[in-house]
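Recall the central idea of this unit: under ordinary conditions, the amino acid sequence of a chain determines the structure it adopts. In this exercise we apply that idea directly, starting from the sequence alone.
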Amino acid sequence: MAAFFFQLELPVINDSIVATIPTHRLYINKLFAEGRILSYSVSANRSMVWCVINAEEEQEALEMVLSFPLYPHFTDVICHPLLFHNTLPTAMPGISLN
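Accordingly, the structure predicted from this sequence is:
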């Protein structure tokens, strides 16, 4: 699998975007659970989204972005194929004997 970094631009937040966010978040969480999305970030001013997608090829990654519920609102979509994507390992919670 390869990794693809996407930069997604949003217009000023409006009622239509706000109404789509819950569905979008559910879909993003599903892709995380499947290991298809490796990271997902939103800028503080809500104008940019950045995500790293795990896919066999760029076309497959782009099709995933095209299926995002917020896709119709994106004003710009830029894809950067990555050589690699490193993240800190997720710590396992401590074991409780209670």
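The chain has one domain: 2-82.
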